[in-house]
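Q: Hi! First time doing this. I have a protein sequence and I read that you can turn it into a structure. Is that right? Here it is:
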Amino acid sequence: MLYKAQAIHSQMIAWRRDFHMHPELGFLETRTAGKVAEILREIGCRVRTGVGVTGVVAELGQGKPVIAIRSDMDALPITEANDAPYKSQIEGVMHACGHDAHMAMLLGAADLLTRETLPGTVRFLFQPSEEMADAEGISGAPRMIAAGAMQDVDCVIALHVAAGIKTGEIEISERDSAAGVDTFYGKVLGRGGHGSTPHKVVDPIFISGHVILALHSIVSRRIKPYDPAVISIGTIKGGVLDNIIPEVVEMSGTIRYLKPEVQARLHEEIERAFSVAKTMGGDYELRIEIGYPPIVNDAGVARLIEEVGCDLLGAEHVKEPLPEMGSEDFGFFMQEAPGAMFILGCRIEGDERRHHDPRFDVFEDCLPIGAAIFAETALRFLTQTPKTQQGSEGR
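A: Yes, that's right. Below is the predicted 3D structure, encoded as structure tokens:
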């Protein structure tokens, strides 16, 4: 399968560069979705558009079992600093996380699978808005699920490129693959006044210092050492002039966890940390926004990807990932069916490009590898899974 994927390498490069030149933000991927749908129809897929706002769902084959393969489509609000011929043509928007490569590889996998006899159905999910949520706080994966994208799916897989991993290698875990993420928004409320008379005010900046210390002590002192967790403060805003003590200080931050019980404990402790404001004569407001769930790979699906990776790349190029606390919304799909996400190396040797950075780029030799692993994993899953239900018509 890798040899077949290498034969369409130039086509995947062309697709990826086209997407890179025309990036679109979450739930605004109209051109991207149109291009994806056009290519899928040309290679012979059944295609449905407008799934979960701008998502695209396509299928090959018929009946059970059904395996879904997902790619995200959205870009980031970043101005590209690269000078490549395929540099973003949209000011202030850039594919700085590799979603352009994800789409090219999934299209490549679809192309490869049109040449195979499929004992079941392969469903291709091109998802909008992985990076951000809409006005209701909902990202692309739940929107697609609500629109029926995961109906009858028996297994779902995905990949994410990694600029820190050597091209030609993959990483796959039979357990935790990514952390869950929530966001907190807090206000420390005081009573403002002139900076020359601090004894006449309730200083929310002073109080915030104690709240910050309490927040930063949660993981080290309130969570078990063997339970991974992160609390990081990302924004602090307070005051307008150097000689005025403000009424309020606002702050927000990210919460990362792997276990639901740890998530609940973190929420309780953040509430406790902000309550320090009351003991110091002030008050507080706190809102915690629930985000993406953890990605916990199904062991059986992960072993299948590992087996494919070993056969295509050699066992020495298939590795166990180091634990990290990054997050993404593929976990919502895995709440609907067993699945797994693997990490695909895309490092540019001698010039590693960080994700979400204006200079991010991928080594395009990774494209045939991702497409081949997608296609071969789908084929083996369909072949090895009992047909509990054989459909007579395409969906």
